[in-house]
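Fig. S4 source data, part A: sequence.
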Amino acid sequence: MTDGRTSGTARAFELLEPLVQAATVRVHAPPGGYDNPGSHRTGPTWGSGFFIAPGWVLTCAHVVGEGGAAVRLTGREVGITFHSGRPRHGAPGAPGAVTGTVTGRVECVLPERLEERRPGRHALWDLPDLALIRVLAPVSHTCVWLTDRSRPRFDEVAYFGCTEDLGTPEITGRTTRLRGTAGNGAAIRLADDDEIDPGMSGGPVVDLARGEVVGVVKARRHTGGGGLAVSVVQLRTLPTALRGQVGLYRRIMQAHDLYHYDQHLSDLDNRRTWTDVHGELPPRERDPYGGRGRLTPGERTTLCGLLAELPPPSSSEAVRALVEAVRGEEPDPQPPAPLSWRDGLGLLYDPPGGTGEAAAMLRYATDVSVADYREPPPPGADEELWDWVRATAERLWRPLRRELGERHERGLAERERRRRASAGRAAGGPPRRDGGLPPGASVLLEVWAHGWEHLYDWRVSVLAGPAHPGRLTPVDSGVRATVAGLPQRLRAPLAEAFRRCDTHVAAALLEVAVAPELFGLAVEDWVVAGGVPLGVQRPVVLRHPGGRSSAHGPGGHPGGADAHPQGPQAHPADHEAGRAAARWARVQAGPLQDERADCAGGRPRAPSAEWLSGLPDTTVPVHCRAADQEPTLGSLHAVRDAGYGVAVTRRPPPEPGVSCAPFHRGLREELADAGRAEVLPLRLQTLRGRAYGADPDAYWAAGAGLVWEDPARPLPDVEPLHGDL
């Protein structure tokens, strides 16, 4: 261990070292078979890893790629040498700990593009450079405690991994400090207090003050000590689940929390658990939440376990909404998005206003006990959580206990109201109609031309939707990208935004707000995750840039199907707003009729404002020519000025002279079959899926785009980004 550490750090290392060593593994070539766990014929060490949940090992992608750069990583079998059972008195070699070897299979790697493109020899692999290994046999082992904080604290840490200093592989640990972050927070820098040996890649980095794993050793510096580690929070970027399924991240974190919960409750032996050691760690100096202002380690473990017994949240935004209700402000937007109830706890440390962490977490747990889950909870699970909150609050102050009780009663009443509304009829409203867009948050992509250059600035945000009209939460932005470079530049920001907005029942809407001359941008063909184009995975619509949403009235809401400004003092903009509101409401209900806006019998035409104004409100103007050329560009502006919130555009085929008749014929049949506009975004997604699946009857829809100016989703009126001069 490095000299010069404080006595508190030395004591924390002494307490945590046996637990971390017992959960750390050696990664190598697969053995002859996992039916011979005593075999040591495993070849050289590729790197290290550690158990994060029963049957799951986390390591670096470059570790499982060792010795096989040409092979596919996902599905590759590797060898895992581990220590079976928790040590009773110290090191893993102590009585009660048995060394064994088992086969594991790589379940996935992050980022997914590592399967397509990997760096050359001795080059750094792309962040987050993580691999998740499923163990292919039931074995007894220990698991680390993972942090729930979105950002690491820059304190003293210990890193562990496999070394062969004396020719025999062994798990060792050393201490250092965190010196900052890299890669937009995906990586953390390790100071040069000590050397990171070959073989330690993939090992855990442990925060000694809090007793939790915060990182995965990734690389060492070529000169001197120190290096990089990957933040374990990057596990949230694991591939998202198919609709109706529980994602891999949520499954693993549920197993992680239930493991520690079960260990905490068990009285079958007297071995130290992570919860026990958390209670023995030296107290932190100048802790503003010491005493009853912070949950005890046992309370925190129990809370995580009770949360894990509930079904996952319906979406990331559902977690953020509960955190915001507790904090009184928007939580940290730093990616990755929170995906589990446990992740919400990580956003409640250091709450504003001097509120104790314990009080904040109990309020959050109260709200979770009456929240909407993706499926009905196990019988009594939500009541058990509330009973624990009420019992835990007994050691706190009386006003909080009363507040929590009132909060719980309000939550029960609100949940019952939501259940009645979702049964098919909203309170006091008409029956709910199927086939429309999900009412929640959407992802907004804005792209602006960079002056007269062929470069573009961009921003990815979360648009809150009808519940909070115009509310925008930025995810990422950039400047001076080429059209060809946009898909790669936007891959990670879009993936993060989708994680925040997707629910277990529906993929979030992607709204692309660009000037009409960019309506030909092939966003629906981009691939972000899973190897499937965006337009197949989710509905994608086009929007005109922000700044005109006020045309739909205050707050962007329509005034009804027959809304018109009243009185002789009505402003022309108010008249325009009323006309747009009327058209939107009527076209949503249908029946629809198409009208060629830039084409007449296969020849181009420019529609006049008078002609457009005289068309029925249920008309969907259709464009079949290039959006960045006349007369289509002028037609798109004229259609918008005439108050049409729904229109169709298309990227024409690259071959000149191809007739547009099949496109118009197919679209006419599609609109007639749809009947009403509110189902068009999802129907166009279905068409793209059919074409992707090689259905010739859907080929006519190639390049089709839907202009969708929903007044319930007003865009902010903001200035574009300004790049470097």
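Fig. S4 source data, part B ends here. The chain has a mean pLDDT of 85.
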